[in-house]
Amino acid sequence: MNYSEKVMDHFTNPRNVGEIPDADGVGEVGNAKCGDIMKMYLKIDGNTITDVKFKTFGCGAAIATSSMATEMIKGKTIEEALQLTNKAVMEALDGLPPVKVHCSVLAEEAVKAALTDYYTRQGVDAKLIVGEIPDCSECHAHD
Amino acid sequence: MEKRLIYADHAATTAVSDEVLKEMLPYFQENFGNPSSIYAKGRENERAIMNARQRIAKCLNADPKEIFFTAGGSESDNWAIKGTADRLAQKGKKHIITSVFEHHAVLHTCEFLEKHGFEVTYLPVSPEGIVSPDDVEKAIREDTALVTIMFANNEIGTIQPIAEIGEICRKHHVLFHTDAVQAIGNVPVDVQKQNIDMLSLSGHKFHAPKGVGVLYVKKGIILPNLIHGGGQESGKRAGTENVPGIIGLAKALELATANIPEKIQKLTPLRDKLIDGILTIEQTRLNGSRTQRLCGNVNISIVGIEGESLLLMLDNYGIQASSGSACTSGSLDPSHVLLSLGLVHEVAHGSLRLSFGEELTEEDVNYILAVLPEIVSRLRAMSPMWEKLKKENIKLV
Predict the structure, then answer these.
(1) Which CA distances in Å does B366 have to A69, B294, B307, B316, B363?
(2) Is residue A130 part of a domain?
Protein backbone atom coordinates (compact mmCIF):
# COMPACT_ATOMS: atom_id res chain seq x y z
CA MET A 1 0.00 0.00 0.00
CA ASN A 2 1.32 3.43 -0.94
CA TYR A 3 0.83 6.77 0.75
CA SER A 4 -2.43 8.63 0.17
CA GLU A 5 -2.39 12.08 -1.40
CA LYS A 6 -3.17 13.59 1.99
CA VAL A 7 -0.12 11.91 3.53
CA MET A 8 2.05 13.17 0.69
CA ASP A 9 0.59 16.67 1.08
CA HIS A 10 1.32 16.76 4.82
CA PHE A 11 4.77 15.32 4.22
CA THR A 12 5.68 17.76 1.45
CA ASN A 13 4.10 20.80 3.13
CA PRO A 14 4.06 19.97 6.83
CA ARG A 15 1.96 22.32 8.96
CA ASN A 16 3.22 23.81 12.22
CA VAL A 17 6.86 22.81 11.90
CA GLY A 18 9.21 24.39 14.39
CA GLU A 19 9.44 25.04 18.09
CA ILE A 20 7.83 27.34 20.64
CA PRO A 21 10.57 28.86 22.83
CA ASP A 22 8.18 29.71 25.68
CA ALA A 23 6.04 26.60 25.36
CA ASP A 24 3.82 25.57 28.26
CA GLY A 25 4.32 21.88 27.54
CA VAL A 26 6.90 19.93 25.51
CA GLY A 27 6.74 16.20 24.83
CA GLU A 28 9.15 13.89 23.04
CA VAL A 29 8.45 10.27 22.09
CA GLY A 30 10.21 7.56 20.08
CA ASN A 31 13.96 7.14 19.76
CA ALA A 32 16.62 7.46 17.13
CA LYS A 33 17.49 3.78 17.23
CA CYS A 34 14.03 2.86 15.97
CA GLY A 35 14.17 5.59 13.36
CA ASP A 36 11.53 7.99 14.63
CA ILE A 37 11.43 10.78 17.19
CA MET A 38 8.56 13.26 17.57
CA LYS A 39 8.78 16.38 19.65
CA MET A 40 5.70 18.51 20.25
CA TYR A 41 5.42 22.01 21.73
CA LEU A 42 2.17 23.42 23.14
CA LYS A 43 1.13 26.94 24.07
CA ILE A 44 -1.84 26.78 26.39
CA ASP A 45 -4.07 29.66 27.45
CA GLY A 46 -6.60 28.79 30.12
CA ASN A 47 -7.96 25.55 28.82
CA THR A 48 -7.24 26.16 25.14
CA ILE A 49 -4.29 25.04 23.03
CA THR A 50 -3.54 28.31 21.29
CA ASP A 51 -0.44 27.21 19.42
CA VAL A 52 1.32 23.98 18.62
CA LYS A 53 4.56 23.17 16.78
CA PHE A 54 6.45 19.98 16.09
CA LYS A 55 9.79 18.59 15.04
CA THR A 56 10.09 15.04 13.73
CA PHE A 57 12.92 12.74 12.73
CA GLY A 58 11.40 9.89 10.79
CA CYS A 59 9.81 8.58 7.65
CA GLY A 60 7.17 10.21 5.47
CA ALA A 61 4.34 8.87 7.61
CA ALA A 62 5.99 10.08 10.82
CA ILE A 63 6.21 13.62 9.47
CA ALA A 64 2.68 13.53 8.01
CA THR A 65 1.05 12.16 11.18
CA SER A 66 2.84 14.79 13.32
CA SER A 67 1.65 17.52 11.01
CA MET A 68 -1.93 16.24 10.98
CA ALA A 69 -2.02 15.78 14.76
CA THR A 70 -0.95 19.41 15.31
CA GLU A 71 -3.72 20.59 12.98
CA MET A 72 -6.25 18.49 14.82
CA ILE A 73 -5.49 19.92 18.27
CA LYS A 74 -4.73 23.54 17.43
CA GLY A 75 -7.40 25.82 18.93
CA LYS A 76 -9.00 22.89 20.77
CA THR A 77 -9.45 22.42 24.50
CA ILE A 78 -7.15 20.15 26.48
CA GLU A 79 -10.00 17.67 26.93
CA GLU A 80 -10.50 17.51 23.19
CA ALA A 81 -6.77 17.06 22.60
CA LEU A 82 -6.67 14.21 25.12
CA GLN A 83 -9.31 12.44 23.10
CA LEU A 84 -7.24 12.47 19.93
CA THR A 85 -6.62 8.86 18.89
CA ASN A 86 -4.14 7.43 16.43
CA LYS A 87 -7.11 6.09 14.52
CA ALA A 88 -8.53 9.59 14.07
CA VAL A 89 -5.16 10.84 12.79
CA MET A 90 -5.02 7.93 10.35
CA GLU A 91 -8.54 8.53 9.12
CA ALA A 92 -7.84 12.22 8.64
CA LEU A 93 -4.92 11.21 6.42
CA ASP A 94 -7.08 8.81 4.37
CA GLY A 95 -5.31 5.82 5.88
CA LEU A 96 -1.72 4.60 6.29
CA PRO A 97 0.07 1.47 5.07
CA PRO A 98 -0.12 -1.23 7.80
CA VAL A 99 3.62 -1.01 8.59
CA LYS A 100 3.18 2.71 9.29
CA VAL A 101 0.38 2.50 11.84
CA HIS A 102 2.94 2.89 14.64
CA CYS A 103 3.68 6.42 13.34
CA SER A 104 0.11 7.47 14.11
CA VAL A 105 0.47 5.92 17.57
CA LEU A 106 3.57 8.05 18.11
CA ALA A 107 1.66 11.17 17.05
CA GLU A 108 -1.06 10.46 19.63
CA GLU A 109 1.60 9.80 22.27
CA ALA A 110 3.50 12.99 21.40
CA VAL A 111 0.39 15.06 22.14
CA LYS A 112 -0.12 13.20 25.42
CA ALA A 113 3.55 13.59 26.38
CA ALA A 114 3.35 17.35 25.82
CA LEU A 115 0.21 17.55 27.96
CA THR A 116 1.86 15.44 30.64
CA ASP A 117 4.69 17.96 30.71
CA TYR A 118 2.16 20.80 30.91
CA TYR A 119 0.43 19.28 33.95
CA THR A 120 3.71 18.35 35.61
CA ARG A 121 4.83 21.97 35.32
CA GLN A 122 1.56 22.96 37.04
CA GLY A 123 2.36 20.56 39.86
CA VAL A 124 -0.51 18.28 38.91
CA ASP A 125 -0.15 14.51 38.76
CA ALA A 126 -0.47 14.08 35.00
CA LYS A 127 -0.94 10.32 35.18
CA LEU A 128 -4.43 10.78 36.59
CA ILE A 129 -5.48 12.98 33.69
CA VAL A 130 -3.36 11.88 30.73
CA GLY A 131 -2.70 8.28 31.68
CA GLU A 132 0.48 6.27 31.18
CA ILE A 133 2.48 6.72 28.00
CA PRO A 134 4.20 3.48 27.11
CA ASP A 135 7.95 3.75 26.99
CA CYS A 136 9.64 3.02 23.68
CA SER A 137 11.71 0.28 25.28
CA GLU A 138 8.48 -1.53 26.10
CA CYS A 139 7.96 -2.06 22.39
CA HIS A 140 9.14 -5.58 21.75
CA ALA A 141 9.98 -5.02 18.14
CA HIS A 142 13.68 -5.39 18.79
CA ASP A 143 13.52 -8.53 20.92
CA MET B 1 16.90 25.28 -11.58
CA GLU B 2 15.17 23.12 -14.14
CA LYS B 3 13.87 19.83 -12.76
CA ARG B 4 15.59 16.75 -14.16
CA LEU B 5 14.45 13.17 -14.09
CA ILE B 6 17.26 10.93 -12.84
CA TYR B 7 16.84 7.20 -12.41
CA ALA B 8 19.41 6.38 -9.73
CA ASP B 9 18.24 2.89 -8.81
CA HIS B 10 19.95 0.60 -11.32
CA ALA B 11 20.84 -1.81 -8.53
CA ALA B 12 17.10 -2.38 -8.06
CA THR B 13 16.24 -2.88 -11.71
CA THR B 14 16.79 -1.47 -15.20
CA ALA B 15 14.64 -0.84 -18.25
CA VAL B 16 14.72 -3.30 -21.14
CA SER B 17 16.87 -1.63 -23.78
CA ASP B 18 15.67 -1.02 -27.34
CA GLU B 19 18.16 -3.47 -28.81
CA VAL B 20 17.13 -6.18 -26.35
CA LEU B 21 13.43 -5.58 -26.92
CA LYS B 22 13.92 -5.69 -30.69
CA GLU B 23 15.53 -9.10 -30.42
CA MET B 24 12.80 -10.41 -28.13
CA LEU B 25 9.74 -9.16 -30.02
CA PRO B 26 9.54 -11.86 -32.71
CA TYR B 27 9.35 -14.51 -29.98
CA PHE B 28 6.07 -13.19 -28.62
CA GLN B 29 4.03 -13.58 -31.82
CA GLU B 30 5.66 -14.85 -35.03
CA ASN B 31 7.98 -17.31 -33.30
CA PHE B 32 5.67 -18.31 -30.49
CA GLY B 33 6.26 -22.04 -30.88
CA ASN B 34 7.13 -24.39 -28.03
CA PRO B 35 10.82 -25.31 -28.29
CA SER B 36 9.88 -28.92 -27.50
CA SER B 37 7.55 -29.23 -30.52
CA ILE B 38 8.68 -31.28 -33.48
CA TYR B 39 7.58 -29.01 -36.34
CA ALA B 40 9.64 -26.20 -37.83
CA LYS B 41 8.25 -23.43 -35.58
CA GLY B 42 9.23 -25.40 -32.52
CA ARG B 43 12.63 -26.41 -33.81
CA GLU B 44 13.35 -22.81 -34.69
CA ASN B 45 12.83 -21.85 -31.07
CA GLU B 46 14.90 -24.72 -29.80
CA ARG B 47 17.72 -23.44 -31.98
CA ALA B 48 17.19 -19.91 -30.68
CA ILE B 49 17.58 -21.13 -27.12
CA MET B 50 20.67 -23.16 -28.01
CA ASN B 51 22.11 -20.10 -29.63
CA ALA B 52 21.30 -17.94 -26.58
CA ARG B 53 22.94 -20.49 -24.31
CA GLN B 54 26.10 -20.39 -26.43
CA ARG B 55 26.21 -16.61 -26.44
CA ILE B 56 25.74 -16.45 -22.66
CA ALA B 57 28.39 -19.12 -22.07
CA LYS B 58 30.83 -17.14 -24.18
CA CYS B 59 30.26 -13.97 -22.11
CA LEU B 60 31.14 -15.87 -18.92
CA ASN B 61 33.90 -18.03 -20.46
CA ALA B 62 31.81 -21.11 -19.72
CA ASP B 63 30.54 -24.07 -21.73
CA PRO B 64 26.92 -23.90 -23.00
CA LYS B 65 26.20 -27.15 -21.11
CA GLU B 66 27.02 -25.29 -17.91
CA ILE B 67 24.28 -22.67 -18.40
CA PHE B 68 20.86 -23.27 -16.83
CA PHE B 69 18.00 -20.83 -17.24
CA THR B 70 15.99 -19.85 -14.17
CA ALA B 71 13.45 -17.20 -13.25
CA GLY B 72 16.08 -14.92 -11.71
CA GLY B 73 18.79 -14.40 -9.13
CA SER B 74 16.87 -15.63 -6.09
CA GLU B 75 15.93 -18.90 -7.77
CA SER B 76 19.52 -19.42 -8.92
CA ASP B 77 20.83 -18.81 -5.39
CA ASN B 78 18.27 -21.16 -3.86
CA TRP B 79 19.01 -23.92 -6.35
CA ALA B 80 22.80 -23.67 -5.98
CA ILE B 81 22.78 -23.61 -2.18
CA LYS B 82 19.98 -26.04 -1.36
CA GLY B 83 20.97 -28.33 -4.23
CA THR B 84 24.60 -28.52 -3.08
CA ALA B 85 23.54 -28.96 0.54
CA ASP B 86 21.23 -31.80 -0.41
CA ARG B 87 23.89 -33.61 -2.45
CA LEU B 88 26.77 -33.21 -0.02
CA ALA B 89 24.76 -33.98 3.11
CA GLN B 90 24.68 -37.51 1.78
CA LYS B 91 28.48 -37.53 2.12
CA GLY B 92 28.26 -36.17 5.65
CA LYS B 93 29.12 -32.61 4.65
CA LYS B 94 26.74 -30.35 6.48
CA HIS B 95 28.63 -27.09 6.88
CA ILE B 96 28.22 -23.94 4.76
CA ILE B 97 30.29 -20.77 4.78
CA THR B 98 28.82 -17.44 3.75
CA SER B 99 29.06 -13.80 4.86
CA VAL B 100 26.86 -11.67 7.08
CA PHE B 101 26.03 -9.16 4.34
CA GLU B 102 24.80 -11.44 1.57
CA HIS B 103 21.53 -10.80 -0.25
CA HIS B 104 18.51 -12.26 1.53
CA ALA B 105 18.16 -14.87 -1.21
CA VAL B 106 21.38 -16.37 0.18
CA LEU B 107 20.98 -15.51 3.87
CA HIS B 108 17.43 -16.78 4.24
CA THR B 109 18.29 -19.93 2.29
CA CYS B 110 21.16 -20.58 4.72
CA GLU B 111 18.86 -19.92 7.69
CA PHE B 112 16.40 -22.41 6.23
CA LEU B 113 19.16 -25.02 6.00
CA GLU B 114 20.16 -24.36 9.62
CA LYS B 115 16.67 -25.46 10.59
CA HIS B 116 17.33 -28.67 8.68
CA GLY B 117 20.47 -29.73 10.46
CA PHE B 118 23.13 -27.73 8.63
CA GLU B 119 25.69 -25.56 10.32
CA VAL B 120 26.38 -22.18 8.76
CA THR B 121 29.36 -19.89 9.39
CA TYR B 122 28.50 -16.24 8.71
CA LEU B 123 31.82 -14.50 8.10
CA PRO B 124 32.10 -10.88 9.22
CA VAL B 125 33.13 -8.21 6.74
CA SER B 126 35.71 -5.46 7.21
CA PRO B 127 34.53 -1.91 8.05
CA GLU B 128 35.15 -1.27 4.34
CA GLY B 129 32.72 -4.02 3.39
CA ILE B 130 35.14 -6.67 2.14
CA VAL B 131 35.22 -10.40 2.99
CA SER B 132 38.70 -11.61 3.87
CA PRO B 133 39.93 -14.67 1.91
CA ASP B 134 41.93 -15.63 5.01
CA ASP B 135 38.73 -15.76 7.02
CA VAL B 136 37.24 -18.06 4.39
CA GLU B 137 40.24 -20.38 4.57
CA LYS B 138 40.18 -20.48 8.37
CA ALA B 139 36.49 -21.33 8.38
CA ILE B 140 36.81 -24.31 6.04
CA ARG B 141 36.36 -27.66 7.81
CA GLU B 142 36.38 -31.32 6.86
CA ASP B 143 32.62 -31.24 6.53
CA THR B 144 32.32 -27.95 4.61
CA ALA B 145 30.03 -28.47 1.63
CA LEU B 146 29.93 -25.01 0.14
CA VAL B 147 31.29 -21.49 0.29
CA THR B 148 28.91 -18.84 -1.04
CA ILE B 149 30.11 -15.23 -1.18
CA MET B 150 28.60 -12.50 -3.31
CA PHE B 151 30.62 -10.97 -6.15
CA ALA B 152 29.56 -7.40 -5.36
CA ASN B 153 27.32 -6.18 -2.59
CA ASN B 154 23.92 -4.92 -3.67
CA GLU B 155 23.74 -2.02 -1.23
CA ILE B 156 27.24 -0.67 -0.87
CA GLY B 157 28.65 -1.98 -4.16
CA THR B 158 31.86 -3.38 -2.67
CA ILE B 159 33.62 -5.88 -4.93
CA GLN B 160 34.81 -9.05 -3.21
CA PRO B 161 38.11 -10.89 -3.85
CA ILE B 162 36.27 -13.63 -5.73
CA ALA B 163 39.20 -15.16 -7.64
CA GLU B 164 41.20 -15.52 -4.40
CA ILE B 165 38.31 -17.04 -2.50
CA GLY B 166 37.71 -19.39 -5.43
CA GLU B 167 41.35 -20.44 -5.39
CA ILE B 168 41.18 -21.23 -1.68
CA CYS B 169 38.06 -23.32 -2.23
CA ARG B 170 39.76 -25.26 -5.06
CA LYS B 171 42.76 -25.92 -2.83
CA HIS B 172 40.52 -27.38 -0.14
CA HIS B 173 38.17 -29.16 -2.57
CA VAL B 174 35.16 -27.17 -1.42
CA LEU B 175 32.52 -25.97 -3.88
CA PHE B 176 32.29 -22.22 -4.44
CA HIS B 177 29.15 -20.33 -5.42
CA THR B 178 28.87 -16.60 -6.01
CA ASP B 179 25.82 -14.38 -6.38
CA ALA B 180 27.02 -12.13 -9.20
CA VAL B 181 23.70 -10.33 -9.73
CA GLN B 182 25.19 -6.87 -9.11
CA ALA B 183 28.56 -7.55 -10.69
CA ILE B 184 27.45 -8.52 -14.19
CA GLY B 185 28.18 -5.74 -16.66
CA ASN B 186 30.11 -3.75 -14.07
CA VAL B 187 33.10 -6.01 -13.42
CA PRO B 188 34.70 -8.55 -15.79
CA VAL B 189 33.40 -12.02 -14.90
CA ASP B 190 35.27 -15.12 -16.06
CA VAL B 191 34.22 -18.31 -14.32
CA GLN B 192 37.41 -20.15 -15.25
CA LYS B 193 39.95 -17.50 -14.35
CA GLN B 194 38.05 -16.62 -11.18
CA ASN B 195 37.72 -20.23 -10.00
CA ILE B 196 33.94 -20.12 -9.78
CA ASP B 197 31.97 -23.38 -9.52
CA MET B 198 28.49 -21.87 -9.52
CA LEU B 199 27.30 -18.37 -10.35
CA SER B 200 23.89 -16.67 -10.17
CA LEU B 201 22.84 -13.80 -12.38
CA SER B 202 19.62 -11.95 -13.07
CA GLY B 203 18.60 -10.41 -16.40
CA HIS B 204 16.73 -7.33 -15.23
CA LYS B 205 19.80 -5.80 -13.60
CA PHE B 206 21.40 -5.29 -17.03
CA HIS B 207 18.54 -4.32 -19.36
CA ALA B 208 17.02 -7.77 -19.96
CA PRO B 209 13.44 -8.29 -18.75
CA LYS B 210 12.43 -9.34 -15.24
CA GLY B 211 11.74 -13.01 -14.57
CA VAL B 212 14.76 -14.55 -16.27
CA GLY B 213 18.11 -15.50 -14.82
CA VAL B 214 20.93 -17.99 -15.11
CA LEU B 215 22.68 -20.43 -12.87
CA TYR B 216 26.09 -21.42 -14.15
CA VAL B 217 27.08 -24.85 -12.85
CA LYS B 218 30.58 -26.11 -13.64
CA LYS B 219 30.75 -29.40 -15.47
CA GLY B 220 31.04 -32.33 -13.10
CA ILE B 221 28.85 -30.75 -10.41
CA ILE B 222 25.49 -32.45 -10.39
CA LEU B 223 22.69 -30.57 -8.70
CA PRO B 224 19.38 -32.29 -7.93
CA ASN B 225 16.53 -31.45 -10.28
CA LEU B 226 14.81 -28.23 -9.24
CA ILE B 227 11.49 -28.65 -11.02
CA HIS B 228 10.30 -32.11 -11.99
CA GLY B 229 8.43 -32.49 -15.25
CA GLY B 230 9.55 -32.28 -18.86
CA GLY B 231 13.05 -32.50 -20.22
CA GLN B 232 13.83 -28.78 -20.36
CA GLU B 233 17.24 -27.65 -19.06
CA SER B 234 18.56 -31.23 -19.32
CA GLY B 235 15.62 -32.34 -17.21
CA LYS B 236 16.88 -30.28 -14.27
CA ARG B 237 14.35 -27.50 -14.42
CA ALA B 238 11.16 -28.54 -16.16
CA GLY B 239 8.66 -26.15 -17.69
CA THR B 240 8.32 -24.57 -21.11
CA GLU B 241 11.16 -22.11 -21.54
CA ASN B 242 10.69 -18.35 -21.23
CA VAL B 243 11.87 -17.99 -24.83
CA PRO B 244 11.62 -14.19 -25.23
CA GLY B 245 13.23 -13.69 -21.82
CA ILE B 246 16.10 -16.04 -22.63
CA ILE B 247 16.71 -14.37 -26.00
CA GLY B 248 16.59 -10.99 -24.28
CA LEU B 249 19.02 -12.07 -21.58
CA ALA B 250 21.54 -13.30 -24.14
CA LYS B 251 21.46 -10.02 -26.05
CA ALA B 252 21.57 -7.92 -22.87
CA LEU B 253 24.51 -9.88 -21.47
CA GLU B 254 26.47 -9.45 -24.71
CA LEU B 255 25.86 -5.72 -24.61
CA ALA B 256 26.60 -5.45 -20.88
CA THR B 257 29.90 -7.32 -21.09
CA ALA B 258 31.12 -5.77 -24.36
CA ASN B 259 32.41 -2.48 -22.97
CA ILE B 260 33.05 -2.85 -19.25
CA PRO B 261 36.40 -0.99 -19.21
CA GLU B 262 34.83 1.96 -21.05
CA LYS B 263 31.91 2.00 -18.64
CA ILE B 264 34.24 1.96 -15.64
CA GLN B 265 36.32 4.73 -17.17
CA LYS B 266 33.26 6.86 -17.80
CA LEU B 267 31.39 6.31 -14.54
CA THR B 268 34.21 6.26 -11.97
CA PRO B 269 35.07 9.98 -12.14
CA LEU B 270 31.37 10.91 -12.08
CA ARG B 271 30.77 8.64 -9.10
CA ASP B 272 33.77 10.09 -7.27
CA LYS B 273 32.69 13.66 -7.98
CA LEU B 274 29.31 12.83 -6.52
CA ILE B 275 30.81 11.16 -3.44
CA ASP B 276 33.19 14.06 -2.80
CA GLY B 277 30.39 16.55 -3.31
CA ILE B 278 28.00 14.84 -0.91
CA LEU B 279 30.72 14.39 1.70
CA THR B 280 31.10 18.18 1.94
CA ILE B 281 27.76 18.11 3.81
CA GLU B 282 28.62 17.89 7.52
CA GLN B 283 28.20 14.54 9.32
CA THR B 284 28.00 12.32 6.26
CA ARG B 285 29.98 9.19 5.51
CA LEU B 286 30.60 6.93 2.54
CA ASN B 287 29.56 3.36 3.27
CA GLY B 288 31.92 0.75 1.84
CA SER B 289 35.34 0.93 0.23
CA ARG B 290 35.86 3.78 -2.20
CA THR B 291 38.21 1.86 -4.46
CA GLN B 292 36.89 -1.73 -4.36
CA ARG B 293 33.51 -0.45 -5.46
CA LEU B 294 31.16 -0.78 -8.41
CA CYS B 295 31.58 2.17 -10.76
CA GLY B 296 27.91 3.12 -10.50
CA ASN B 297 27.36 2.80 -6.72
CA VAL B 298 27.20 5.57 -4.15
CA ASN B 299 26.03 4.76 -0.62
CA ILE B 300 26.08 7.55 1.94
CA SER B 301 24.83 7.93 5.50
CA ILE B 302 23.49 11.36 6.39
CA VAL B 303 23.23 11.85 10.14
CA GLY B 304 20.09 13.37 11.64
CA ILE B 305 17.62 12.43 8.93
CA GLU B 306 15.71 9.29 8.07
CA GLY B 307 16.15 7.56 4.72
CA GLU B 308 12.56 7.24 3.63
CA SER B 309 11.71 10.91 4.01
CA LEU B 310 14.90 11.70 2.11
CA LEU B 311 13.79 9.42 -0.76
CA LEU B 312 10.34 11.00 -0.90
CA MET B 313 11.89 14.48 -1.08
CA LEU B 314 14.35 13.38 -3.75
CA ASP B 315 11.47 11.94 -5.73
CA ASN B 316 9.77 15.34 -5.63
CA TYR B 317 12.89 16.66 -7.36
CA GLY B 318 12.83 13.87 -9.96
CA ILE B 319 15.57 11.74 -8.40
CA GLN B 320 14.68 8.07 -7.87
CA ALA B 321 16.91 6.33 -5.33
CA SER B 322 16.79 3.86 -2.45
CA SER B 323 17.78 3.59 1.20
CA GLY B 324 18.76 1.03 3.79
CA SER B 325 16.54 2.59 6.45
CA ALA B 326 14.17 0.41 8.42
CA CYS B 327 11.20 2.24 6.99
CA THR B 328 12.07 1.29 3.44
CA SER B 329 12.99 -2.27 4.31
CA GLY B 330 9.54 -2.86 5.75
CA SER B 331 11.03 -4.04 9.04
CA LEU B 332 12.00 -2.23 12.22
CA ASP B 333 15.70 -2.63 11.79
CA PRO B 334 17.86 -0.86 9.25
CA SER B 335 19.80 -2.74 6.59
CA HIS B 336 21.84 -5.73 7.76
CA VAL B 337 24.52 -4.69 5.29
CA LEU B 338 25.03 -1.28 6.91
CA LEU B 339 24.96 -2.79 10.40
CA SER B 340 27.57 -5.35 9.30
CA LEU B 341 29.98 -2.44 8.64
CA GLY B 342 29.63 -1.46 12.29
CA LEU B 343 27.23 1.44 11.78
CA VAL B 344 24.94 2.27 14.68
CA HIS B 345 21.20 2.15 13.98
CA GLU B 346 20.87 5.95 14.11
CA VAL B 347 23.38 6.36 11.28
CA ALA B 348 22.12 3.42 9.23
CA HIS B 349 18.58 4.88 9.22
CA GLY B 350 19.86 7.90 7.31
CA SER B 351 21.38 6.05 4.39
CA LEU B 352 21.02 6.80 0.71
CA ARG B 353 21.92 4.48 -2.19
CA LEU B 354 22.32 5.97 -5.63
CA SER B 355 23.09 3.42 -8.35
CA PHE B 356 23.75 4.47 -11.91
CA GLY B 357 23.99 3.12 -15.42
CA GLU B 358 25.92 4.26 -18.45
CA GLU B 359 23.57 7.13 -19.27
CA LEU B 360 24.69 9.13 -16.20
CA THR B 361 25.95 12.59 -17.16
CA GLU B 362 27.92 15.35 -15.51
CA GLU B 363 24.72 17.46 -15.56
CA ASP B 364 22.95 14.75 -13.53
CA VAL B 365 25.74 14.77 -10.94
CA ASN B 366 25.63 18.58 -10.74
CA TYR B 367 21.86 18.51 -10.33
CA ILE B 368 22.01 15.98 -7.47
CA LEU B 369 24.75 18.02 -5.80
CA ALA B 370 22.61 21.14 -6.09
CA VAL B 371 19.41 19.55 -4.80
CA LEU B 372 20.63 17.21 -2.05
CA PRO B 373 22.11 19.76 0.41
CA GLU B 374 18.87 21.75 0.24
CA ILE B 375 16.79 18.68 1.08
CA VAL B 376 19.15 17.65 3.87
CA SER B 377 18.96 21.14 5.43
CA ARG B 378 15.19 21.07 5.26
CA LEU B 379 14.90 17.67 6.92
CA ARG B 380 17.54 18.45 9.50
CA ALA B 381 15.75 21.69 10.37
CA MET B 382 12.72 19.66 11.43
CA SER B 383 14.69 16.84 13.09
CA PRO B 384 14.77 16.78 16.90
CA MET B 385 17.62 14.27 16.64
CA TRP B 386 19.75 16.74 14.67
CA GLU B 387 18.83 19.52 17.10
CA LYS B 388 20.05 17.41 20.00
CA LEU B 389 23.28 16.40 18.27
CA LYS B 390 24.06 20.02 17.43
CA LYS B 391 23.21 21.28 20.90
CA GLU B 392 25.39 18.70 22.60
CA ASN B 393 28.05 18.90 19.90
CA ILE B 394 27.91 15.17 19.22
CA LYS B 395 29.34 13.81 15.98
CA LEU B 396 28.07 10.37 15.01
CA VAL B 397 30.39 10.01 11.99
Answers:
(1) 38, 20, 21, 17, 5
(2) no
What's the number of domains chain A is made of? 1
B-chain residue closest to A29, CA distance: B384
- A108 lies in some domain: yes
pLDDT, residue A138, reads: 54
Rounded to whole angstroms, how far apart are CA atoms B166 and B191? Answer: 10
What ipTM does this complex have?
0.92
- Residue contact A35–B309, C-beta within 8 A: no
Residue A137, in any domain of the structure: no
- Which domain CATH number covers A37? 3.90.1010.10
Catalytic: A136? no
Q: Which residues of chain B have pLDDT under 50?
A: none
Residue A32 lies inside a defined structural domain of this protein: yes
Which pTM was predicted?
Answer: 0.94
Which residues on A lie below 8 Å from B384 (Cβ)?
28, 37-39, 55-57
Nearest CA in chain B to A13: B313
Report pLDDT for A142: 42
Which residue range is the domain that position A48 belongs to? Answer: 5-123
Residues with Cβ within 8 Å of B59's Cβ and at least 6 positions away in sequence, in order, are B189, B253, B254, B257
Number of A to B CB contacts under 8 A, please give it. Answer: 71
